[in-house]
Amino acid sequence: MLINFVPMKKHLIILALFCFVGSIHAQTTKVHGNLGVQNVHIIVTDTKQGTVSDAKGNYTLLLPNNNKRVNLLYSCIGYQDTVVSLTPKQLQTRTVNVSFRMRPKNYALEEVTVMENKPEIAYHEKLISLEAYEINEMGLYMIVYRRSGNALLHLTLDMDTLSILPIGRKFERLYKDVYGQIHLISYDSTYQIGHRQLGDTYLDAELFYGMTHRDFYRIMGNNAAATDSIFVIATYGDGAQELYYHYFKKGDPNAYLLEYTFDQEGLDLVENIRKFGLGGIIPPPPIYDPVFAVGDSLVLFNFEADKIEFFDQNAQIIGETPIKFHRDVKWNGKRPMKNTWNRMILMDGTKKKFYAVFLEESILVLKKINLKTGETKEVARLSGFQFVLLPRVNNGLLYFMYHTGDTHSKALYQMDIE
């Protein structure tokens, strides 16, 4: 059955654009050097200030002059972390050269837990490359590239093909909205995928409600969650370090505040960038505090406040659970160990369970979240599958895309995690 779009009020996403490159404040020290390795992350510990080495291993970082010791953490996949301490005296000079060679890690054999279930190919054909997929209650939808032309496939979860719809080459992405409807996305237009109904039978997949890319994101871009009684939108503020969740009640045009979250450290960094320019500072990424509809209730992962919040059908808070799996771990109470959480939460809508995605040496590790305690338990480790694409969980199965062999072709894999 098709769901029509309900016109919503326009809500602007407030994004701070950092374009200040001008002069650097006079009271700064230029730290530079060569590490012999590209993509080394250099971070000022206990802050979000940092930079990344270029293709030749060179880097530059601007630090404010102060009377405190500054520790720089150098980290890169496949290499040992290194901490360099700069004294207040060094920070009073105009430039400081810190150059060394990153040391490769020595991977000793560790105790390995053998898991009974392993990923297996769910869908793959030699002459077809899977480019995107999404899952809802109607089955599985795929964008595939073929020699005879691109197509949208609709399959059952047993991988039986229900319909094949030819599409243009410009379509490269699928988007699942808060109602569970799936949309076909290109660089300039979008369509909702739907089915006409004849009695109790659903016909082949068709494309409906075509609109421009711009109009689609104006209508759908800040939609966050929806139940039968309330609709939630998300709006970023001040460098995307603030996040406002507002909700609408059914039949009521007024917006009400559900929750406001913010990252104070990120706000401070945004303010410093405004004052002194970008320099060698990496702007902080948008804060990530996702909200999900579970039946008539809402579950909000408020990572900035270290808790999961639960709301009833009237958007009233009914409980909280503390969480810490997203935070850096202190080693011997001193040096923080880098957290491998990949800023991603997956929901199994069928089982109503939640999973945190971790990335350890480019290997995806999936951990189930206990909503009552906030603790996590590992349920899948995709050893042998580096940089998997589009992980999803549905009905106790983990799905993901992965390249097959030495070709550019991609296949769909699945793994039982129950």
What descriptors fit this protein?
418 residues, mainly beta, four-stranded antiparallel beta sheet, globular, disordered N terminus
Explained architecture:
- It contains 2 helices and 33 strands.
- With 418 residues, the chain is mainly beta.
- The strands form 9 sheets. It has a 4-stranded antiparallel sheet with strand order 3-2-5-6, with no helix packed on it. A 4-stranded antiparallel sheet has the order 8-33-32-31, with no helix packed on it. A 4-stranded antiparallel sheet has the order 9-10-11-12, with no helix packed on it.
- The longest helix is centred in the middle third of the chain and has 13 residues, at 264-276.
- It is globular and about 80 Å long.
Question: How would a crystallographer describe the biggest sheet?
Answer: 4 strands, antiparallel
What share of the residues does DSSP label as strand, in percent?
A: over 45%
> How large, in whole angstroms, is the Cα Rg?
24 Å
Question: Per the principal axes of the C-alpha atoms, what is the gross shape?
Answer: globular
Q: Counting H and I runs of at least 4 residues, what is the number of helices? A: 2
Quaternary:
single chain
- How many strand elements? 33
